[in-house]
Amino acid sequence: MVKVGPSTLPIDVNNMKEEIANLERAGADYIHLDIMDGEFVPNETLGVELLEIVNDSTDILLCTHLMVENPEKWIEEFSETDIFTFHIEAVTPEVAESMIQELHEREMKVGIAIKPDTSIEEIMPYIDEIDMVLVMLVEPGLGGQKMMPECLEKVKTLRELRPELDIEVDGGINLDNVEMVKATGANMIVSGTAIVNSTDRAFVISQMKK
Ligand code: DX5
Ligand code: ZN
After folding, report:
1. Using one digit for the tens of pLDDT, what is the confidence trace for 61-94?
2. In the chain, how many domains are there?
3. Rounded alpha-carbon distances, angstroms, from residue 4 to 94, 103, 169, 188, 191
4. Which one of the ligands is nearest to 115 CA?
5. Which of 3, 4, 26, 200 is most deeply packed, by most CB within 10 A?
6. Domain range for residue 45?
7. How far apart are the C-alpha atoms of 84 and 89, rounded to whole Å?
8. Ligand 1 centre from 69 Cα, in Å?
9. Ligand 1: lining residues by beta carbon, under 6 Å
10. Which atom of ligand 1 is the closest one to the Cα of 7?
11. pTM summary value
């Protein structure tokens, strides 16, 4: 069964509570909280304030996608997220190891994200210690981009290597390409624009889950 997680990126922060409740009623399995620091990526979002707003509005599973430099410095503030996902490009191997250990000590789940140009070799040293891999299908930093189908090869390979691993995919997923995305074995589908900007969110989510 695939799970569908709408991204918070296209949502107006002033309406965040109502929008999260609406997405939950529309059938969202979890919320994909996009956080940007203006350094790892040029754009910037609210930080922990956004997590607080979302956490206040719902008990739904929260997967936070941290597009930030020095993600180790964000662990304390984001300890209320269910899955803490950081980019492998933002850390050294030593920092990655110590973050995985710290997150697990805090009983948080750990995700590692890879950008389109990053190969899965980069995450293989950690693969059996983490809970999820996030394969980006666009360059992180902006919603509404076109999916890069060549990134799906990485998902296929990962799925062959680890049949049980949670694999999340993110970027440019819509009703026209979701079948192709699911065929790779990804089981956590993120979608911002295609769900949030739709006039029938429940329909889009149910089609994506099918
Ligand atoms: C991109 C973000 C994504 C993205 C999803 O940097 O991590 O979560 O906003 O939005 P769409 O589905 O519009 O690409
Ligand atoms: Zn994201």
Report:
1. 999 999 999 999 999 999 999 999 999 999 999 9
2. 1
3. 32, 24, 10, 6, 8
4. 1
5. 4
6. 3-209
7. 15
8. 18
9. 7, 9, 32, 34, 65, 138, 140-145, 170-173, 190-194
10. 8
11. 0.98
